[in-house]
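Now read this:
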Amino acid sequence: MEENKKHPHSGHRQRFKNKAFDGGIEYWPQHEVMELILMYAIPQKDVNPLAHDLINRFGSIANVLDAGYEQLRDVKGVGHEVALYLTLLPEIFDRYLASKDTDSVVLNTPADCVNHFRHINRVREVEEFYIFCLDIKKRLIKTVKMDGGLSASISISLSSFAKEIAFDACKSIIIMHTHPGGDPQPTQSDINSTRRLMHSAMSVGVRLEDHVIVSDKSYYSFLKNDIIDDMFNQVSALFNQRIHIGDKIDE
């Protein structure tokens, strides 16, 4: 019986991984980092040509990982599993960053919120919605990414929203959502939704401090633009009069 032969690339892979472990990858060319990433997605195959193809096609590792599933599938040699793996990596990185040093994050200003968001995340091609839960000293104690957004076609469930913030340590919240198009100015739908969410927060004894809209290069703060205080007074009056109308306060 013929003896089992080692795969011709097995030695190269192990040397490559040892090189990364021993010296780090900070100064590696981008195609080598891409090759290392692909080694964990494609077993027993020379992935060096594919690494070069991906960097040549998209220009950088960041652009490869930010590319959509369908864009990646258009590259010869990228199947379902590889495309899925590459698109999930940024999500894993985001979870890693979001879970670090939460106790040390204090959100006193809109700029603090934006800086924290850009540290743990990025503006993607679809609208996303986040809740920052704060304690009495404005320290971040919980970050929630809600399903959906605030666009006309996607709405946040008020009951799910209230459930996420209804715990003793949460004294106030800041809500944030992204505008992928580049313009952070609020739409009328954004303003109406903020009223609803403020009303919902009041129902569980939590104050909505600000609504920050983030685009790729700028942001808009309801607090900074003197909207939030007037809105709080209006919603408080409605809350005191009609406590169950959180889904109808568009006027």
